[in-house]
């Protein structure tokens, strides 16, 4: 997703906004979504700084326009209008980009609800803005309410088996020492590094997502 | 460990309808046969949705620890290990413990009865005591005889394959695993040739049954399917993936036969190749790139000239199987064994034993061809180190006769010492060295002497691995060193660790070496 390309108005405005952004800073402001990367790298910290800079820019543009419009009304200087229009277009574009950025992040967060469950890993949570956390909680509530209402007896967990499973049980390998794990039927299994287990798919799906287990395929 | 035999039978005997609430704990030793058996079992369990946990165990202590850790909630425990002691003493000779006797004794002595009854009881008790003492002596004797020699029994993968077949769940893949398990026992000289041939004869009908295809178009199968074929294989180590020349220089039999470590021996090998009409240039390039006409006639040529060079056909040819899948992958059973053992004994520091275990399981997976190729390369490196070590033993006359046995040590600081700190490699080195020494030595007696080999093991602990193997001429392959090591250590208070499943391999504190060996010499005289 590309976010902001301000180079359009630089040179058109008589006084450019105080902090002129360099090319490197543009790059920093773009949230990156590497393809096929690990989930941690997908959601980068909320670009507060970047967004604030965009807002400052927009304020500067707006003030400039305000002054020019007043001048134009007073003296009816027709040559001011193209500049005003240009700045207005830049303003609109910035707005669109910021909205797209926020929207995309929300989509990603919603997807994470399906992948990680209602509790986000700490490192991901750290990268969320306060409002996003609030939104996540609301989304979780909404989803939970819906899932409860689907079936009369106790609801239905929609987040399980996102892809249709081929078998009820799968073979997993333990990637790290995780300690004891209690299965649905009350049995206790010791998840120790490099041990292999044959488990119910539904039980170990979240452990696979957390990276504790690895599904070994034959 | 005959527990394997008993318990594998019982899982399925007891659970005709496999019950999923039973979790089976499978403890697997670091041996290829055990790994193959484990894979067969995995398949069977998966078919029946039996839950299981697989834990690799390196030695007896590890076994105990793993069992304690994982046994919670486990109903059945299986131990996958290939060695198996023959002539198991009868149950009642060893475990009979007449507890009621003791109770009677206690009760009666408290009994304030008349003297006569007491006396009568005493007579009976005396007889009973005498019987018991006799029984105990007998028990001790039987147990000693039982543990005096150790040997190996039926391959556990063959056993499990047999079970799979009886359950109509046998596939070509399982058959291939059983073949690997059986061949591993023979390659590592765990069983004699007759026994191996018996197993092969048992496997052959299965191979023909599962690989039978009519020639018409309809029943042809994809090239990616596994095809197993019987073949009279050349016993040249991995020659299909190496060059013929290198393979000749690294195979136990040919190296010893030609005495390749001498100039004369090299010349003789060249002469042999020249006689067969194989150009050296062709022999030294990769076997796959050899001229097709040579490649196809290699076996016939070897057969034709074996008499001239007094090569024993039995030693050069081995009835075995090879597998083909895809266009490129063609492995014979011994290739797989060398590759997987190399991976199992990987000396890379970043991998733990259990990592190596998983890598080997991956290698035995047919779909992961790159693992297999890597394994073959590793096997070549380890084998070269081994041959170099044998050569340096012979060049420096490091094999010494101690009277009742021969011995040698791999010194610390030898370049490839790390390879020999692993039991399978050490055992292979011991056999190779003994074989080579017997070929070079003028003394006829050496063929009847067993061999003890020590190698530096762990410098932090200051320990060495010691292995004892039976003499070359002893074809029964019974190993007496397990008990001998135990007694030698006990009489000299040497600090030893009898942790390996094979009792003839022990860990010994390097400082205690001389007194341990003195005791061993006097013990075996």
TrEMBL record, chain A:
Matches recorded under InterPro entries: GINS_A, GINS_bundle-like_dom_sf, GINS_Psf1, PSF1_C
Pfam families reported in the protein's UniProt record: PSF1_C (PF24997), Sld5 (PF05916)
Location of the protein in the cell: Chromosome; Nucleus
GINS subunit domain boundaries: 70-150
Example GO BP: DNA strand elongation involved in mitotic DNA replication
GO cellular component: GINS complex
Residues covered by the DNA replication complex GINS protein PSF1 C-terminal domain: 166-217
Entry coiled-coil feature ranges: none
Keywords, sorted A to Z: Chromosome, DNA replication, Nucleus
PANTHER family membership: DNA REPLICATION COMPLEX GINS PROTEIN PSF1, PARTNER OF SLD5
Functional description taken from the UniProt entry: Required for correct functioning of the GINS complex, a complex that plays an essential role in the initiation of DNA replication, and progression of DNA replication forks. GINS complex seems to bind preferentially to single-stranded DNA.
Quaternary structure, from the entry: Component of the GINS complex.
Family indicated by similarity: Belongs to the GINS1/PSF1 family.
Protein name (database record): DNA replication complex GINS protein PSF1
Species: Paralvinella palmiformis
From TrEMBL, chain B:
GO MF, any single term: single-stranded DNA binding
Primary location recorded for the protein, binned into one broad class: nucleus
Pfam entry (one): CDC45
Record has Cell cycle as a keyword: yes
Signal listed as a keyword: no
GO biological process: DNA replication initiation; double-strand break repair via break-induced replication; mitotic DNA replication preinitiation complex assembly
Subcellular location: Nucleus
GO annotation, cellular component aspect: DNA replication preinitiation complex
InterPro entries from the UniProt entry: CDC45 (IPR003874)
Chain coiled-coil ranges: none
Keywords from the named record: Cell cycle, DNA replication, Nucleus
Superkingdom of source: Eukaryota
Protein family membership: Belongs to the CDC45 family.
The name this protein goes by in its record: Cell division cycle 45
């Amino acid at each position: 997703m590309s976010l902001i390309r301000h180079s359009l108005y630089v040179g058109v405005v008589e006084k450019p906004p105080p902090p002129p952004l360099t090319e490197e800073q543009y790059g920093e402001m773009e949230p990156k979504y590497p393809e096929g990367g690990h989930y941690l790298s997908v959601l980068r910290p909320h670009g507060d700084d970047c967004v604030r800079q965009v807002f400052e820019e927009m304020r500067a543009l707006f003030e400039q326009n305000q002054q020019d419009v007043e001048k134009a009304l007073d003296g009816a200087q027709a040559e001011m209008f193209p500049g005003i229009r240009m700045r207005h277009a830049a303003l609109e574009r910035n707005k669109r980009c910021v909205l797209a950025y926020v929207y995309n992040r929300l989509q990603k967060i919603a997807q994470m609800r399906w992948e990680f469950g209602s509790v986000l890993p700490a490192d991901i949570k750290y990268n969320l803005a306060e409002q996003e956390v609030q939104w996540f909680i609301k989304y979780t509530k909404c989803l939970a309410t819906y899932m409860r209402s689907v079936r009369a007896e106790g609801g239905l967990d929609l987040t399980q088996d996102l892809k249709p499973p081929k078998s009820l049980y799968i073979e997993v390998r333990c990637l790290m020492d995780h300690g004891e794990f209690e299965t649905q039927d009350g049995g206790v299994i010791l998840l120790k590094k490099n041990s292999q287990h044959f488990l119910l798919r539904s039980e170990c799906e979240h452990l696979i997502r957390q990276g504790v287990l690895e599904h070994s395929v034959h | 460990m005959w527990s394997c035999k008993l318990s594998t039978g019982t899982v399925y005997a007891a659970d005709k309808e496999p019950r999923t609430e039973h979790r089976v704990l499978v403890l697997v030793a670091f041996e290829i046969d055990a790994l193959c058996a484990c894979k067969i079992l995995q398949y069977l369990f998966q078919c029946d949705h039996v839950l299981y946990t697989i834990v690799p165990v390196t030695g007896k202590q590890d076994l105990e620890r793993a069992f304690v850790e994982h046994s919670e909630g486990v109903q059945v425990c299986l131990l996958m290990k290939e060695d198996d002691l023959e002539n198991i003493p009868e149950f009642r000779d060893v475990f009979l413990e007449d507890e009621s006797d003791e109770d009677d004794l206690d009760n009666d002595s408290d009994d304030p009865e008349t003297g006569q009854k007491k006396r009568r009881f005493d007579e009976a008790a005396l007889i009973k005591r005498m019987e018991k003492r006799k029984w105990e002596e007998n028990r001790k004797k039987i147990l000693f005889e039982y543990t005096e020699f150790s040997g190996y029994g039926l391959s556990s993968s063959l056993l499990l394959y047999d079970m799979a077949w009886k359950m109509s769940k046998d596939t070509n893949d399982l058959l291939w695993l059983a073949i690997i398990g059986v061949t591993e026992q023979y390659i590592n000289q765990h069983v004699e040739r007759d026994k191996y041939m018996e197993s092969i004869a048992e496997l052959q009908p299965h191979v023909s049954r599962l690989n039978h295809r009519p020639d018409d178009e309809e029943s042809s199968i994809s090239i990616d399917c596994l095809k197993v074929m019987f073949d009279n294989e050349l016993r040249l180590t991995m020659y299909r993936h190496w060059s013929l020349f290198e393979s000749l220089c690294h195979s136990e039999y040919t190296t010893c036969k030609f005495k390749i470590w001498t100039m004369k021996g090299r010349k003789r090998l060249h002469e042999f190749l020249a006689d067969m009409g194989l150009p050296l240039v062709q022999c030294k390039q990769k076997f796959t790139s050899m001229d097709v006409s040579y490649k196809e006639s290699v076996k016939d040529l070897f057969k034709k000239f074996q008499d001239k060079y007094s090569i024993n056909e039995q030693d050069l040819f081995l009835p075995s199987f090879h597998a083909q899948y895809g266009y490129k992958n063609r492995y014979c059973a011994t290739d797989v064994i060398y590759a997987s053992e190399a991976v199992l004994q990987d000396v890379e520091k970043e991998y733990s034993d259990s990592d190596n275990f998983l890598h080997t399981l991956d290698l035995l997976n047919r779909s992961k061809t790159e693992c297999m190729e890597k394994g073959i390369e590793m096997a070549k490196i380890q084998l070269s180190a081994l041959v170099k070590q044998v050569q340096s033993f012979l060049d420096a006359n490091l094999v010494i006769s101690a009277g009742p046995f021969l011995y040698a040590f791999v010194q610390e600081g030898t370049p490839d010492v790390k390879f020999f700190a692993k039991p399978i490699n050490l055992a292979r080195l011991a056999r190779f060295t003994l074989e080579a020494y017997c070929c070079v030595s003028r003394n006829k007696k050496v063929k009847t002497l067993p061999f003890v080999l020590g190698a530096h093991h762990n410098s932090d602990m200051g320990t060495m691995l010691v292995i004892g193997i039976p003499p070359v001429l002893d074809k029964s392959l019974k190993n007496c060193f397990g008990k001998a090591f135990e007694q030698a250590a006990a009489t000299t208070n040497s600090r030893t660790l009898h942790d390996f499943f094979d009792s003839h391999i022990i860990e010994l504190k390097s400082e205690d070496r001389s007194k341990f060996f003195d005791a061993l010499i006097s013990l075996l005289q």
